[in-house]
Amino acid sequence: MYKGMKLKIIELEKDKIRVTLEGEGHTIVNALVDEILADPEVDVAKYVIKYQFSDPEVFITMKPGSTKEPLTVMREAAQHMIDRCDALLSCLKN
């Protein structure tokens, strides 16, 4: 059973955040970054995996004048992913 994800905040400011996602790979992080970029207040969202077995580092910056904080955008993006997965699971059960 999946126990959850460990997130380590490296840098957090009003308009940017840099975090690592322990033990995760391209699949989940790429989907998360795509979902984050769907928010019109996001300026940049990207990730890097420096070495083959290192944890991915996600970087988000907000557009000037944005009313949202990057951590909020990250939470909302994760919730959208959960909602989509729940909808898919619901379809598969019927």
TrEMBL record:
Keywords: Cytoplasm, DNA-directed RNA polymerase, Nucleotidyltransferase, Transcription, Transferase
Source organism superkingdom: Archaea
A Pfam family this chain is assigned to: RNA_pol_L_2
Enzyme superclass (EC): transferase
EC numbers for this chain: 2.7.7.6
Entry keyword annotation includes Electron transport: no
Boundaries of every DNA-directed RNA polymerase RBP11-like dimerisation domain copy: 17-89
SUPFAM superfamilies: RBP11-like subunits of RNA polymerase
Location within or outside the cell: Cytoplasm
Name of the protein in question: DNA-directed RNA polymerase subunit Rpo11
Protein's organism: Methanocorpusculum labreanum (strain ATCC 43576 / DSM 4855 / Z)
Lineage, uppermost ranks: Archaea, Methanobacteriati, Methanobacteriota, Stenosarchaea group, Methanomicrobia
